[in-house]
């Protein structure tokens, strides 16, 4: 008997059908006969919201009236993916929806596909935020996600005829968007610019120059089987002045709408940077905009109708998690609110503030830790600059009581000295919060021992680790229904969806050949599905009887897509030169997915190279279909959900010490892919858990990388030493992938041979050597699948429910609503 613990549907199919009809009639204004899948999508979404409404109210009431501290997850990005199917799953209405929609003459898949994916994030950091709010709700912990409702999400990626990336605006709000509820009556004023004056009593008054209206758009975040519905509150910027009538009357129409345009620019577009900095005034405006609105909102929510609330209790009401440095301006903002708006003295305000905030660091790349020119902050937020300077002064004084090491104190300045002082947001976050955490064990160690070494020396107790995780609801149950059914069959229960460590129960089944074969059949069917999907969406012809080898993530030098493409070119060169017999080559389909930041020259050139390698290799008869390269454009959550379950081999090949954690690596392991990877980020923990014998490890360690940097790294040496590497790079230079033009990739080749900051060349030989182990194993399907199954069985730790539980015990000190 299989135990089913999935949430019970609050509706019957008949009720669901009636509600859809009602919505179609009164909201969409169409008959079921006139309706399109898009109409049915909107109607069904409204029906789902309808059934979640009471649980949403109740969760909010219990949060405000009870004693359970809430979590406010402050994040500039929430990469949510499509909502409808996830909400149906979490609320237990999938079957009723499917039946109702079919009854009305539609295919459920068409209705699901009509949803336009909100792409309000760049990559792992934004998707992590989305997994975390799913887990918070599923665990019944009261929480707000606070962020920005960008009108344009991450750009839509296309490729031109030369294989170059083209960026198109992603206007995801072009059609009716049924999930967000705009609440004009809960808006907040956010001020900018102006000056600070000192009143007669010595207190300060900020006299801002301009303001915008922050209007919340609320999204329900239904927990899986928890009966709880939390809130994702994304702010959108509106102008207070629609236009200036005086200017308009002078017939200067464009200038008349300027204030509106300027104000609304704030939430217009998501910056497409990931692990690279973007020090623009507009970005600081965005950060302050959403953080200021969120802080005021939390005070409104937790002290309803109170003019003089006792904000010394604020840290007992809500704890704010700073998702990277993007929301760190919240620290001086809360100080300002407490001192200037509510009249608290500095020390009380500082005590409240430091107890309210915690900071998660998501990267070690020094260039990605945000630093703002003090001048810019001063122009935009003059009062905040004063407060930051005072925090800095107090902090330096406190340090002086803790250490005599003057050089160290100097290194720890929040505001640097000199002509153009800078504000280091990571330092401000560390000084102004209770805890600092990294996102995987290795990353947290490096954060403590290298990046924030001085801070961890003096405040060792602030530092902790919370290894990332992913939600099994979206990334196993929704993405991979076949595997989900097999897991439930194997375990005899579906309880694993709320307790992923139960996957461990599959371990003994890895010895059962029949079960392993079922597991292999699931993978094969997923590959066939993906081939059909890729044909439909991209016009690709994938052969599901080849190994599906995937590398999907942002395009960045440290992630080393170059290593993958160079190894592939080396294989191609082997075939062309006759060094290997093409008939002996294991058939592989290599699938890339990656967006490059629009200003990131080498990253964009790498995309162009991959596309042209694909063009050449896929069309070369000498290859006999053994090597196939595909680059589906515009990688997003939807594509991830299709591709991950169909992957045999996943690439996690960043230079050791550079990938803070990775979360794709977890999704692949949980979906039964094998990983080839370096000892980096969460790979280390994945390998520990799934077993070294079930993970393809290669490459330098962090220590070896450091040593090589110290000795002086010379990539040309590696080029000379490995003839296959040389052949591959020469093939890029000689025009094979640029219609004979030798200049096309010259900057990329020059970088490889003279700089190669992330040591792609140094790891090349090891990377190509491990390929023979990979291929030998793949030629034994039963053994491959046994190991892949062991990856699934031992990856339960990487549920975001476990991450959230760690945050609750190590950092937030709160829990589920009673
Ligand atoms: C990132 C890291 O690069 C990535 O390793 C990590 O998994 C993710 C979530 O913690 O955060 N940092 C930045 S910046 N973008 C990311 O995806």
Automatic annotation (TrEMBL):
It catalyses: [(1->4)-alpha-D-glucosyl](n) + phosphate = [(1->4)-alpha-D-glucosyl](n-1) + alpha-D-glucose 1-phosphate. Its EC number is 2.4.1.1. Coiled coil: none annotated. It comes from the Bacteria. Its cofactor is pyridoxal 5'-phosphate. Keywords: Carbohydrate metabolism, Glycosyltransferase, Pyridoxal phosphate, Transferase. Pfam families: Phosphorylase. Phosphorylase is an important allosteric enzyme in carbohydrate metabolism. Enzymes from different sources differ in their regulatory mechanisms and in their natural substrates. However, all known phosphorylases share catalytic and structural properties. Belongs to the glycogen phosphorylase family. This is Alpha-1,4 glucan phosphorylase.
């Amino acid at each position: 008997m299989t135990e089913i613990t999935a949430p019970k549907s609050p509706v019957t199919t008949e009720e669901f059908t009636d509600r859809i009809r009602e919505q179609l009639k009164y909201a969409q204004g169409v008959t079921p006969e006139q309706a399109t899948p898009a109409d049915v999508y909107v109607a069904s979404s409204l029906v789902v919201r309808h059934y979640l409404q009471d649980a949403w109210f109740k969760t909010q009431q219990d949060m405000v009236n009870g004693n359970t501290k809430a979590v406010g997850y402050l994040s500039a990005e929430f990469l949510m993916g499509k909502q409808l199917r996830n909400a149906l799953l979490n609320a237990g209405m999938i079957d009723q929806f499917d039946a109702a929609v079919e009854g009305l003459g539609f295919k459920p898949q068409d209705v699901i596909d009509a949803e336009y994916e909100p792409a309000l994030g760049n990559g792992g950091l934004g998707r992590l935020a989305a997994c975390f709010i799913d887990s918070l709700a599923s665990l019944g912990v009261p929480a707000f996600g606070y962020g920005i409702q960008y009108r344009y999400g991450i750009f839509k990626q296309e490729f031109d005829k030369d294989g170059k990336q083209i960026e198109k605006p992603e206007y995801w709000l072009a059609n009716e968007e049924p999930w967000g509820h705009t609440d004009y009556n809960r808006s907040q004023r956010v001020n900018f610019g102006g000056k600070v004056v000192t009143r007669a009593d010595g207190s300060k008054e900020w006299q801002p120059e301009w303001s915008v209206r922050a209007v919340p758009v609320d999204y329900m975040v239904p927990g899986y089987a928890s009966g709880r519905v939390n809130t994702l509150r994304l702010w959108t910027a509106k102008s207070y002045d629609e236009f200036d009538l005086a200017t308009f009357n002078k017939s200067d129409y464009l200038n008349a709408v300027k204030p509106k345009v300027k104000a609304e620019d704030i939430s217009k577009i998501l910056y497409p940077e990931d692990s690279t900095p973007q020090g623009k005034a507009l970005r600081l405006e965005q950060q302050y905009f959403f953080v200021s609105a969120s802080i005021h909102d939390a005070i409104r929510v937790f002290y309803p109708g109170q003019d003089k609330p006792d904000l010394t209790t604020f840290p007992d009401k809500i704890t704010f998690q700073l998702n990277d440095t993007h929301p760190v301006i919240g620290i001086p903002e809360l100080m300002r609110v407490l001192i200037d708006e509510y009249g608290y003295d500095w020390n009380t305000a500082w005590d409240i503030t430091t107890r309210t905030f915690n900071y998660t660091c998501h990267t070690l790349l020094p260039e990605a830790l945000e630093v703002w020119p003090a001048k810019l902050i001063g122009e935009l937020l003059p009062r905040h600059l004063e407060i930051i300077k005072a925090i800095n002064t107090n902090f330096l004084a406190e340090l002086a009581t803790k250490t005599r090491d003057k050089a160290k104190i100097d290194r720890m300045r929040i505001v640097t000295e000199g002509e153009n002082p800078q504000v280091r947001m990571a330092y401000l976050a560390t000084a102004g919060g209770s805890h600092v955490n990294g996102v995987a064990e290795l990353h947290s160690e490096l954060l403590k021992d290298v990046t924030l070494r001085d801070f961890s020396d003096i405040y060792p107790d602030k530092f902790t680790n919370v290894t990332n995780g992913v939600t099994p609801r979206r990334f196993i149950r929704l993405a991979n229904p076949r595997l989900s059914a097999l897991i439930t069959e194997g375990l005899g229960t579906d309880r694993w969806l709320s307790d992923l460590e139960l996957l461990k129960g599959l371990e003994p089944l890895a010895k059962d050949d029949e079960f392993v074969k079922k597991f292999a059949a699931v993978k094969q069917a997923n590959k066939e599905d993906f081939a059909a999907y890729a044909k439909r969406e991209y016009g690709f012809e994938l052969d599901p009887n080849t190994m599906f080898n995937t590398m999907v993530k942002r395009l960045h030098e440290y992630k080393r897509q170059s290593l993958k493409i160079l190894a592939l070119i080396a294989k191609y060169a082997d075939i062309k030169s006759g060094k290997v017999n093409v008939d002996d080559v294991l058939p592989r389909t290599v699938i890339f997915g990656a967006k490059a930041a629009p200003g990131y020259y080498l990253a964009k050139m790498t995309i162009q190279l991959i596309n042209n390698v694909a063009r050449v290799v896929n069309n070369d008869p000498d290859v006999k279909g053994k090597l196939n390269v595909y680059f589906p454009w515009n990688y997003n959550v939807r594509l991830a959900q299709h591709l991950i379950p169909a992957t045999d081999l996943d690439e996690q090949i960043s230079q050791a010490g550079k990938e803070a954690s990775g979360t794709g690596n977890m999704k692949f392991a949980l979906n039964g892919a094998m990983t080839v990877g370096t000892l980096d980020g969460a790979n280390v923990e994945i390998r520990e858990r799934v077993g070294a014998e079930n993970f393809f490890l290669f490459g330098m360690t962090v220590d070896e990388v450091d040593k090589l940097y110290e000795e002086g790294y010379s990539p040309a040496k590696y080029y000379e030493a490995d003839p296959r590497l040389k052949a591959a790079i020469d093939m890029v230079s000689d025009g094979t992938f640029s219609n004979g033009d030798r200049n096309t990739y010259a900057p990329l080749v020059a970088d490889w041979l003279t700089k190669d900051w992330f040591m792609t060349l140094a790891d090349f030989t090891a990377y190509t050597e491990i390929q023979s182990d990979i291929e030998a194993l793949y030629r034994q399907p039963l053994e491959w699948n046994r190991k892949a199954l062991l990856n699934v069985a031992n990856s339960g730790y990487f549920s975001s429910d476990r991450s959230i539980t760690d945050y609750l015990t190590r950092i937030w000190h709160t829990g589920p609503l009673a």
